[in-house]
C-alpha cells in the first residue's frame, strides 16, 4: 500500500485517496479552436512514463482536497511535489 | 508416450536483419510470428524479448478465456479467438490443456441483472453461446457458492458461456514458440529493444542490448511497455500502465469446476489443473511498472471470495504477484498502423488479452503482411480516438476495471 503525502494531512494510506492520473493537464483555453486530433489528445492522451510522474490524488476520506505529487512509477517512491 | 524434448526452440544469435522484427515474446508476439510464417509465408522474422520467453503478462495472467462481449466488434474478435482456441492443441501439436469448463459472470443487483440479460441477448444475436442462469441454476453448477439472499451483495443470477474456460498459459507460449521456430522464426531472449534506427520517415532497424538489428517492418507486441517504445518512436498512445495482481492458494482437491467472475464485488476465480485456486481482481489505481501492487486490493478480493465461497476461508494463499497491463480509455485493444509507416502496434489489451492470444496473433499478422488493418481489427485502430467513434466501453467489455 502506498503512503501518499497529503500536503495538508501528512502521509496517509492510499486507501483514503482516489487517484487522479497525470497532473497539470490544463483545460484548453479555446476549445472550439482545437482540431479533432488536438481535442482527442486533450481527452485521451496522457503521459505514461516509466520513471518520475507528476500526478494527482484526491484525499477523499481525509481533507477532501486534491494535491499534486511526483512519484516514481517503478520504485513507487514519492519525490518533491511540483 | 514420447519423452518431453529438452529444447522446444533454438537459441540463435541474432542475424544482421529480418524482414519483420516483433518486439516482445509474450503470447501475442509469439502467435503473431507463427501466423506471419504459417498464413503469410513470411518466416524471416525475429521475436526479440528483453527477459525470458513469455515471462511477462503471459506467465502472470489468470488464463480466463471467453468471448461474451457486448459490443459487436469485440464479440467478433474474441469469438474468432475462441474458435482458434478450440483447435489449437491439434494445430500446434501440443496439449495446451484448454478446458471448456464454462464461465459465469455473476449479477448482484437489479442493474447488474439487466445488463447481464442484455449481454446474453446480444451474444446470441452474434452467434455466441450464452445463457442466463437463476440463482438456483448457479448453485447447481457451483455447489460451493453461497446463494443466500442474506449476503450484502447476493447472487441474483449469472450469465453463462459454456464454451469459455481456461488453458495452461505456459503451454500456449511454448507451443507457439516451438511451432514458430519450426517455420524458421528466430526467438531471441535477453534482447531488449532500447531505440530505433531511422531513414527519413521509415524505421530501418532497432537498437538492442545485443546490438543493432535491421528491420523491414517493426511490430510492437510489448503489452504494458508499449508507451515506452512509442515515446522512442515519437508518438503517444492512449494508454496507462497499471499493476494487475493475482494470487494462488495451495493445492486443493477439486471443488470448483467452472470459472466464476464477479465484476460488482470484484473477484474472479478458477481452479487450476493441478488444484490451486487462481484468483484475480481489479487493477491498482495508480500508474505503475513495478510488477507489484498494493495489499488492500488483495485484501478486498479475498473478502469477496470468502463471502461467495465460505469454504475458501480455510485455504492458504501461497503466492501473489503482479503484471503490468496497458489500459486504454475504452478497455479495448489498439491494433493497426502507427504514424510511422512501417511500424505496427498491438497493445491496450489491458486486463483481458490472454483470451485474445490466437485471434490477436492472427489478425495482427495479417495487418502486418498487408500493411492495412484486418477487417476484425479495423474497429480497433488508433484513429478511433479522433473520428468520434464510441469509446466509453468498459461495460461492454464486461470488465469492471
Ligand atoms: C494478473 C493478471 C491476470 C490476467 N488475467 C487474464 C485473464 O484471466 N484472461 C485474459 O484474457 N487476460 C488476462 N490478463 C491479461 C493478459 O495477460 C494480457 O492482456 C496479455 O498477456 C498481453 O499480451 P502478451 O501476452 O503479448 O503480453 P506479455 O506476455 O506481457 O508480452 C510482452 C512482452 O514484451 C516484452 N518487452 C517489453 N518491452 C520490451 C523491449 N523494450 N524489448 C524487448 N521486449 C520487451 C516483455 O518482457 C514481455 O515478455 C491478465 C494479466 C495479469 C497481469
Ligand atoms: Zn488531506
From TrEMBL, chain A:
Which Pfam families does this entry report, sorted A to Z? Answer: SoxD (PF04267)
Q: Which domain of life is it from?
A: Bacteria
**InterPro entries xref list:** SoxD, SoxD_sf
This entry's Gene Ontology molecular function terms read:
sarcosine oxidase activity
Gene Ontology BP annotations: tetrahydrofolate metabolic process
In which organism is this protein found? Asanoa ferruginea
Any idea what this protein is called? Sarcosine oxidase subunit delta
From TrEMBL, chain B:
EC no. given is: 1.5.3.24
What enzyme category does the UniProt record give?
Answer: oxidoreductase
Q: Which residues form a coiled coil?
A: none
Can you name one GO molecular function term for this protein? sarcosine oxidase activity
What's a single GO BP term from this record? Answer: tetrahydrofolate metabolic process
PROSITE patterns reported for this sequence: RHODANESE_3 (PS50206)
Which transformation does this protein catalyse, written as a reaction?
A: sarcosine + (6S)-5,6,7,8-tetrahydrofolate + O2 = (6R)-5,10-methylene-5,6,7,8-tetrahydrofolate + glycine + H2O2; sarcosine + O2 + H2O = formaldehyde + glycine + H2O2
Q: Which GO terms describe its cellular component?
A: cytoplasm
Where is the Rhodanese domain positioned along the sequence? 19-64
Query: Where is the protein situated, by its record's location annotation?
Result: Cytoplasm
Primary location class:
cytoplasm
Q: Which domain of life is it from?
A: Bacteria
The similarity comment for this entry is:
Belongs to the SoxB family.
**Per its record, how is this protein called by name?**
Sarcosine oxidase subunit beta
Source organism per entry reads: Asanoa ferruginea
Amino acid at each position: 500500500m502506498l503512503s501518499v503525502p497529503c500536503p495538508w494531512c501528512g502521509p496517509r494510506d492510499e486507501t483514503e485517496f482516489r487517484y487522479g492520473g497525470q497532473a497539470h493537464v490544463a483545460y484548453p483555453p479555446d476549445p472550439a479552436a482545437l482540431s479533432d486530433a488536438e481535442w482527442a489528445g486533450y481527452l485521451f492522451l496522457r503521459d505514461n512514463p516509466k520513471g518520475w510522474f507528476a500526478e494527482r490524488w484526491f484525499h477523499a476520506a481525509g481533507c477532501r482536497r486534491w494535491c499534486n505529487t511526483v512519484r516514481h512509477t517503478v520504485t513507487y517512491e514519492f519525490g518533491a511535489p511540483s | 508416450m514420447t519423452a518431453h524434448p529438452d529444447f522446444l526452440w533454438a537459441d540463435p544469435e541474432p542475424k544482421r536483419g529480418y524482414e519483420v522484427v516483433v518486439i516482445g515474446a509474450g503470447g501475442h508476439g509469439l502467435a503473431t510470428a507463427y501466423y506471419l510464417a504459417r498464413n503469410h509465408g513470411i518466416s524471416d522474422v525475429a521475436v526479440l524479448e528483453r527477459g525470458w520467453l513469455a515471462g511477462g503478462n503471459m506467465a502472470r495472467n489468470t488464463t480466463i478465456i471467453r468471448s461474451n462481449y457486448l459490443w459487436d466488434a469485440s464479440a467478433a474478435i474474441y469469438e474468432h479467438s475462441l474458435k482458434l482456441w478450440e483447435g489449437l492443441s491439434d494445430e500446434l501439436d501440443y496439449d495446451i490443456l484448454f478446458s471448456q469448463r464454462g464461465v459465469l459472470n455473476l449479477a448482484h443487483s437489479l442493474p447488474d441483472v439487466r445488463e447481464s440479460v442484455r449481454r446474453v441477448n446480444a451474444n446470441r444475436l452474434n452467434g455466441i453461446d450464452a445463457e442466463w442462469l437463476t440463482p438456483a441454476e448457479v448453485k447447481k453448477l457451483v455447489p460451493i457458492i453461497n446463494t443466500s439472499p442474506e449476503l450484502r451483495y447476493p447472487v441474483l443470477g449469472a450469465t453463462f458461456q459454456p464454451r469459455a474456460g481456461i488453458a495452461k498459459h505456459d503451454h500456449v507460449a511454448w507451443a507457439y514458440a516451438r511451432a514458430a521456430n519450426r517455420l524458421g522464426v528466430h526467438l531471441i531472449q535477453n534482447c531488449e529493444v532500447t531505440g530505433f534506427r531511422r531513414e527519413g520517415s521509415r524505421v530501418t532497424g532497432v537498437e538492442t542490448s545485443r546490438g543493432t538489428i535491421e528491420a523491414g517492418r517493426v511490430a510492437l507486441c510489448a503489452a504494458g511497455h508499449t508507451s515506452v517504445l512509442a515515446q522512442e518512436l515519437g508518438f503517444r498512445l492512449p494508454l496507462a500502465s497499471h499493476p494487475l495482481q493475482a494470487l494462488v492458494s495451495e493445492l486443493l482437491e477439486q471443488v470448483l469446476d467452472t470459472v466464476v467472475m464477479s465484476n460488482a464485488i470484484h473477484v474472479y476465480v478458477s481452479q487450476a489443473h493441478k488444484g490451486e485456486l487462481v484468483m484475480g481482481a481489479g487493477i491498482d489505481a495508480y500508474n505503475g511498472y513495478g510488477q507489484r501492487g498494493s495489499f488492500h486490493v488483495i485484501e478486498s478480493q479475498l473478502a469477496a471470495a470468502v463471502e461467495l465461497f465460505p469454504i475458501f476461508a480455510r485455504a492458504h494463499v501461497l503466492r501473489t504477484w503482479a503484471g503490468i497491463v496497458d489500459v486504454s480509455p475504452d478497455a479495448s485493444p489498439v491494433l493497426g498502423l502507427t504514424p510511422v509507416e512501417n511500424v505496427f502496434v498491438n497493445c491496450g489489451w489491458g486486463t483481458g488479452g490472454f483470451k485474445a492470444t490466437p485471434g490477436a496473433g492472427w489478425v495482427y499478422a495479417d495487418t502486418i503482411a498487408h500493411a492495412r488493418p484486418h477487417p476484425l481489427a479495423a474497429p480497433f485502430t488508433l484513429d478511433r480516438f479522433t473520428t468520434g467513434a464510441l469509446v466509453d466501453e468498459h461495460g461492454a467489455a464486461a470488465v469492471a476495471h
